[in-house]
Design brief:
Number of helices: 11
Shape: globular
Structural class: alpha/beta
CATH superfamily: Thiolase/Chalcone synthase
Largest sheet: 11 strands, mixed
Number of domains: 1
Helix content: 25-40%
Strand content: 15-25%
Length: 388
Amino acid sequence: MVVISGMGIVSALGIGLQDNLQSLEAERVGLRKIQNFATIHDVPAGELPLDNRELKRRLGINEAKVVSRTSLLGMLAAEEALADAGVGDRSRVALITATTVGGMDLTPVFFADFMADRTKGRLRYVRQHDCSNSTNAIADYCHIDGFTTAISTACSSAANAIMTGCRLIEQGLADCVVAGGTDALCVYTLNGFKSLMILDSDRCRPFDANRKGLNLGEAAAYVVLQRATDAHKQYCAVAGYANANDAFHQTAMTAEGQGASEAMLGALRQANLQPADIDYINAHGTGTPNNDASELAAMQSVWADKMPKYSSTKGFTGHTLAAAGSVEAVFAALAIEHQTVWANIGCETPISQQFAPVAHTAKCAVRNVMSNSFGFGGNCTSLVFSKI
């Protein structure tokens, strides 16, 4: 059995597990006006209220060193997860990390000089553009010497990292895996999502009949995966996982949620659970018209008229892209540990009154949690976590 033995998280709700837990419990939202870079777009986002200099000071990194924000967030969360798990010897520790942004927050610094003069521009700012750069930076900072790789499958990336980490342990290829994802807000990402016309100018409203789009967020979250017999601490078991792809559209899912329902059913099968065994679903729930309708249709196809409690926590953090799957895996594990389901912030008029999401954070029995992460291109992943 593979268990989560350590967790680390940095999000708009705060730095560390306790800050994030307290915000979820108090229904304290992390969405605010963007402050760390200039933009013409007046939209809320889940931005961490610390600039890069402050992050470097926390990490003990020289302020003059060029490090992407994606890497800095990842270093904080991954190191917290390892410390939480009490991992000392890191010689057989693997790192599976996910990102879509990579070092794109640094690229404009290069192009500002390069476009003015083709002989100018410091290459150190574009060398970190590739996804593998932040992966290597996190591994180096955390002294991880084992197998290391990067996954980039859009918004399902970190969930796929966790799935891959479980498989490494199950096949005996690693004793301990740090798995998760990190993505920072940057001009490129904000402009890209604005061009898709799926940003809400107000706070997002997942599963609301009047929803208009998503809010972007930045975060990093990692879990430490180990065999139950090796773990000093056990938050929960990773009971099942599955990935499916409906191959329907570059940025949309089918109206019926075919890929989503296949992923959920596959995860249930592997966990040897029936739909009725799931107590809570941490839904992908971006707040876009397509995603929420499609995901709800998929959930209804699996659970019919016996839908478990469900909510999207993106109303707290914004959509953290490649980090979303691990941010919400941490929230799922916390739901089991604290026997609590998290509020679906922002939903006033549910798409379906019969199947309305959780209105407020509340205590209840939580044994099995499903966490959904559905990415562009129809890449859908569902994870099932179970109380030990």
